[in-house]
Structures are given as C-alpha cells and as structure tokens.
Amino acid sequence: MGFFDSEIVQQEAMQLFRDYQSLMQLGSNYGKFDREGKKLYIQQMEDIMERYRIFMKRFELSEDFMAQMTVEQLKTQLGQFGMTPQQMFEQMHQTLERMKAEIRE
C-alpha cells in the first residue's frame, strides 16, 4: 500500500490542513485578541507546527515514491525562496518566539 493510500494518512493530512486554515482565519484578528487570547493562539500555532514537522518527517522516512516526490516538491518550492524545510521551521519558530516576547512586554 502506498503512503497516500493509507486512510489514516489521508485523515491526518486533511485534519492538519483544516486546523491550519482555521488558525490562519482566526489569526487575521490577532491584533484584537487580549493577552490570554494571544497566548492561546501562539500555543495552537506551536502545536500545529509540531504536527506538521512530524507529518513531514514521515514523508522523509517513507520509501513510497509519492511521499518522496512530495518532499522533493516542497524542497523545490522552498528553494525558489532560498530556503530549506529546516529553515522554514526555524523561521516559523522564531516568528512565534517574537510573538511571545511581544505579549510579555
């Protein structure tokens, strides 16, 4: 069975995408959140980034051709911006750390 044929993988991918989309929509109002709302939003973003990192690691470790192609496509797309997947995750982490620092002030 291929990586993408797994119902579990499909469900997880859809849930991750839905959760991310919901947070992005919610984030458009980030400036209106109170301090506790901002903390909660940042925590949820950290959780999604960790889920995404794990999901991508599964792709990398899989021997499935389509999973490997997905990893290569991501690398190519990020490469157009002069970035690697690791740099993307580091940049997201730095952004969330800056957001945390702003609400501590």
Automatic annotation (TrEMBL):
Pfam families: DUF1825. InterPro entries: DUF1825. This is DUF1825 domain-containing protein. It comes from Halomicronema hongdechloris C2206.
